[in-house]
Amino acid sequence: MRTFQWILIYLIVISLALGACAAPARTAAPEVPDQSSPTSYTPFPGETPLSTLTPTIEEPTSEPTLPTATPEDCTPDSEFVADLTIPDGTLIKPGDSFTKTWRIRNTGTCTWNREYTWEQINAADNRLFALEPVTPLAGEVPPGETLDISVLMVLHERADLGSTQIARFQLRSPSGEFFGSRPYTKVYAVDGRGRCPSGTADLLVYIHLDDRYCFLYPQTHETSIGQDGTLYVSLPAPAGSTEELLPSVSIHNQGDTGGLDLTAWAEQQIEAAQDPGHPADKTLIWLGPLTAFATEDLPGASSALNVYLVHDDVGFEIVVMPLDGSYGADTSELWEIIRNSFVFYAP
Fold first, then answer.
1. Long-range contact set of residues 3-6: C-beta below 8 Å, sequence gap at least 24
2. For the chain, which terminus, N or C, has the lower number of CB atoms within 10 Å?
3. Please, are residues 248 and 218 in contact by the beta-carbon 8 Å criterion?
């Protein structure tokens, strides 16, 4: 009996094992929702439905403030301080070039920079001109400070000998406006070396190209060369008059001194012109930087002042002729202008 029970239990176990290996029962496929229409969404408990959410956009309370570049509220101005090279009256040979340097002070309230330029303002048809008519400044120059500005200049080869040549400059602001002082360079077109006095509106310069001397004289006077080569400086004669209106100054080239120095040559000239037995007094004077001798005691000179000087072994006699036979204020004024400005220049 007990053996039968074990056989029955064995069969039951075998039957259960075979049932577990059989194919699983087929179940129904899940339903696929229709994609053509949206499916309603059921929120979780406590969740706000999406359909009720409204995006919040913050509107600006005012127009945005953007940084703007405003022009500096300042006034540009300048002042000429000095000529550092090529002083007025320098002799320049036509065709030569040179570097002119000015010192300029910033007297305005603007700080100059590289946008400011130094420009020639009379370049058109000028015989004296800058190779670069527009020169940007080298750097910043605060108010009150100075700046040295250099320009390469050229004197045209066709500049007339003995003529005065002027080139004028001025600063220009970044906005394009010229401002401040108008410094210039003034030279004489001469094939020589040195410097002649700088003329003014009232005083003109005379340059003798052959004897190589120059001086100033009043603009009311005229200069002329006589047949003997004597230079005359005098007031113009009245209309219809053939006589020279005095006072006047005449300059005579007396030629080689024969090796005599000033003292010996002046004594020789005075002795030849004086009355026999009536020695003339001579006075040591200065004609510009030059030593000379003067005398008023020569006969027939109508109180004229005769001046003698020697330069490079060449003797010169200058005669100062008074207006009415007396050495008055008009004569003295003319003579002092010439005397204080007279100078020789080198070849």
1. none
2. N
3. no
Domain-wise residue ranges, the chain? 78-189, 203-344
pLDDT at res. 324: 55
Query: What is the overall mean pLDDT for the chain?
Result: 82
Contact partners, residue 169, CB within 8 Å, separation at least 6: 102, 118, 119, 120, 121, 130, 151, 182, 183, 184
**CA 173, CA 202: separation in Å to the nearest integer?**
34
* Cβ neighbours for 254, distance < 8 A, ≥ 6 positions apart: 269, 314, 315, 316, 317
Q: Tell how many helices (H) and how many strands (E) occur in the chain.
A: 3, 20
Spell out the CATH class of 78-189: mainly beta
Partners of 286 in the β-ladder: 291
CA distances from 231 to 211, 228, 344 (A): 11, 9, 15
Q: For the chain, what percent of residues have pLDDT higher than 90?
A: 63
Grade residue 41 by pLDDT with cuts at 50, 70 and 90. very low
pLDDT digits (tens, 9 = 90+) for 250-269: 999 999 999 999 999 999 99
* Domain 203-344 class, CATH top level: alpha beta
Residues 322 and 303: their CA atoms lie apart, in Å, by 7
Q: What pLDDT does residue 244 have? A: 56
Beta strands in the chain (DSSP E): 78-83, 90-92, 97-106, 117-120, 128-130, 134-136, 146-155, 164-172, 178-179, 184-189, 203-208, 213-218, 222-225, 231-235, 245-256, 283-287, 290-295, 305-311, 314-321, 343-344
Q: State residue 28 phi and psi, 5-degree precision.
A: -70, 140
Domain 78-189 identical in fold to domain 203-344: no
| Alpha-carbon distances, residue 148 vs 41, 83, 177 (angstroms) | 85, 9, 21
Structure confidence at residue 25 as a pLDDT band (50, 70, 90): very low
Q: List the single range of 195-199, 213-217, 270-274 with lowest mean pLDDT.
A: 270-274
pTM of the model as a whole: 0.73
